[in-house]
Amino acid sequence: MKKVSELNNLPACAIIYSLYHSQHEIWPSSLQVQQVLKKFKTMLEMEQSRKMVNQESLLGQSIEKANEQLKKQRKENREKEMTRVLFQSLTSKSLHSLNMVSLNDLGWLIDQSLKDIRVKIKILN
What we know:
Blueprint: H1 2-5, E1 14-16, E2 25-27, H2 30-42, H3 45-51, H4 55-90, H5 100-124
Antiparallel strand pairs: 1-2
Helix pairs in contact: 4-5
């Protein structure tokens, strides 16, 4: 109900059934639910289906979004880790313990840093 009430400024309604209660809940009121349904029924069929989302597709979209965020976060974490390794190597820590993947990532980070420096030099000139 809290999430639905956040939709106050939109033409929205909810009919909520619960396993724990015999009576369903209607938000915001029966009259407003009827008004929203009437408006929905007057829409073209193509427009109706465009705005419909079932539980499965909603969860699919949420999972896809979460996976994208996870991928982005892993990339950021890897860049931070490689930056830390780079700074440690500048303070005489050895890179001998790094595996090939880490060395490749470190090389990529150095290349990106050099590109950023070149862009900043061009801007300053």
